[in-house]
Specification:
- This protein is α/β, with parallel strands linked by helices.
- Helices cover 41% and strands 17% of the residues.
- A 6-stranded parallel sheet has the order 2-1-3-4-5-11, covered by helices on one side.
- The chain is elongated, with a radius of gyration of 26 Å.
- The protein starts with a helix and ends in an 11-residue tail after the last strand.
Length: 345
């Protein structure tokens, strides 16, 4: 059976160097030619083939360059942790897999971006036109889109199962006896990267599912379909519009938890009780949701899992998977006091 000493003799290096190379010691300073020669000799001599194969894979992955392209700014992540959680999942899984994120870009700053063709793979988070991404990085089979309304067939995509999320939320409200149900959420724009091009108009999947499901029940009303910015201020303004509607709704599905925070403030200012006068359901289940007054019923979006899934899919593509995969991550309705009518005794 071959030993480290045998490999060292053929490679012309010390046994210590062979040991450190085969154990993927990142602190070792050795040329790429020497590293490759050691692995080749070890494989030729049959040195612990199962372990060697694993070590060789880890060594190869450690040299891959992965890019992370976020549309959201750092300020956006502070205001709404949805995209921060996706990013955290990507970073954690890449670290576990030995993939190095060597470049992080933000698209919302408006600056023209340089091509990324030197990368071994790219993860794109947020709704960005796929044709613009292709202009930056041409290897479509190594692009993974996360939470992007523009889902090209040739690329891997990860998104939430919005249909199930909205269906669960509306079913809960209907079971509570509500029929005048409203939706408040932001726009569904697909952003452009090339200067001078306006965003592509789209409909946020939460809104489109709300419209379809309410229309199926004959309960959809256009005045209850409110568009507002994705922020607490947007939720506040959207709720004020509903409060002053000719016939006020009795329940509202908010597009995000931060919007629900603003909506609760608007209701409190008007002296309206939750859920007695207005039931509220949010979306995301951010940490503060359980500590609001009243605690917020919300759709738990497994955002960190979305990020981890994206990193796993990219690894599979780097290692040769040919067929593109579109993965939908399920959600869970977390029922708290903001949507449950109290039973009088």
């Amino acid at each position: 059976m071959a030993t480290i000493k045998d490999i060292a003799q053929q490679a012309g290096v010390s046994p210590a160097t062979v040991s450190r190379v085969l154990n993927n010691d990142a602190t070792l300073s050795v040329s790429e030619e020497t590293r490759t020669r050691i692995f080749a000799i070890a494989e030729q001599l049959g040195y612990k083939p199962a372990r060697l194969k694993k070590l060789k894979r880890e060594e190869q992955l450690s040299r891959k360059q992965v890019g992370l392209f976020m549309w959201s700014s750092l300020e956006d992540e502070r205001d709404d942790p949805y995209f921060a959680a996706i990013r955290r999942g990507i970073e954690l899984r890449c670290d576990e897999l030995g993939l190095a994120i060597t470049k992080v870009l933000r698209g919302s700053g408006g600056a023209e971006l340089a091509p990324l063709h030197e990368l071994d793979g790219l993860i794109v988070v947020g709704s960005i036109a796929s044709e613009d991404v292709a202009g930056l990085y041409s290897r479509s089979e190594r692009v993974v889109f996360v939470n992007n309304m523009d889902e090209p067939d040739a690329c891997d995509c990860v998104s939430l199962h919005f249909e199930g999320a909205v269906r669960d939320a509306l079913s809960h409200l209907l079971e509570q006896g509500h029929e005048r149900i409203a939706f408040v959420g932001g726009d569904g724009m697909i952003h452009r990267l090339r200067p001078g091009l306006l965003p592509l108009e789209g409909i946020d999947p939460r809104r489109s599912m709300f419209r379809a499901l309410m229309a199926d029940r004959g309960l959809y009303r256009t005045e209850y379909d409110v568009e507002a910015p994705w922020s607490p201020a947007g939720g506040y303004d959207g709720m004020r519009r509903l409060i002053h509607a000719e016939e006020r709704p009795t329940a509202v599905l908010m597009g995000s938890d931060p919007m629900a925070v603003g909506a609760l403030k608007a209701l409190q200012e008007q002296g309206l009780a939750v859920p007695e006068d207005m039931a509220i359901i949010g979306f995301d289940d951010i940490e503060i949701s359980a500590y609001l007054h009243p605690p917020l019923t919300t759709v738990r979006a497994h955002t960190e899992l979305m990020g981890r899934t994206a990193a796993q899919l990219l690894l599979e593509r780097i290692e040769g998977r040919e067929a593109a995969m579109h993965v939908k991550v399920n959600t869970r309705l977390i029922v708290r006091e903001s949507s449950v009518r109290k039973v009088s005794t």
